[in-house]
Amino acid sequence: AVDHVADNAEAPGYTIDSSGRSTANFAAANGEPIENKGAMTLNLTTTEGHPIKSRFQVCEVSRPLWSVGKICDAGCTVTFDSCGVRIKHQATGKDLCLFERRRGLYVASLLLSKPTVSQAPSEKSRPGFRRQD
């Protein structure tokens, strides 16, 4: 993924910021266009207990995807092996998140926190993602 992307059915209560929309739509692996509906900043916690604020472009995708390039640009090292992925913060040397390899995909389980007041929908905003508990 060239950007962090998630479907608008993943996090209820979060506001989709249409001004945060990247300049272009995305393309699926088959070349079909995927509309970019805006952006959303999610409050996540890793299974290791690390809070992460992550901004996702809102698109109709089958599962949330993090961009490895953007993770690296944020000061982290991403290491892949046959069992999983390790994301390490370069400045502190601490592991931030681990992904398991499941049927060829690297998957992490993250906790989605309730949105803060500033992230909650206003009368002018569209509703955000559906929460998965």
Give the SSE map.
Layout: E1 5-6, E2 26-27, E3 33-34, E4 39-46, E5 51-58, H1 68-73, E6 76-80, E7 84-89, E8 95-102, E9 105-107, E10 110-112
Parallel strand pairs: 1-5
Antiparallel strand pairs: 2-3, 4-5, 4-10, 6-7, 7-8, 8-9
Question: Could you please describe the fold and organization of this structure?
Answer:
This protein is mainly beta. Helix content is 5%, strand content 35%. The chain has one helix and ten strands. It has a four-stranded mixed beta sheet, with no helix packed on it. The chain is globular.
**Widest sheet: strand ordering:** 1-5-4-10
Overall 3D geometry?
globular
* Contiguous runs where pLDDT drops below 50 for at least 5 residues: 121-133
Which structural category do the helix and sheet elements fall into? mainly beta
Work out the helix count: 1
Number of strands: 10
The percentage of residues in β strands lies in 35-45%
Gap from first CA to last CA: 25 Å
Reported for the largest beta sheet, the result is: 4 strands, mixed
Helix content: under 10%
Which series of helices and strands comes N to C? EEEEEHEEEEE
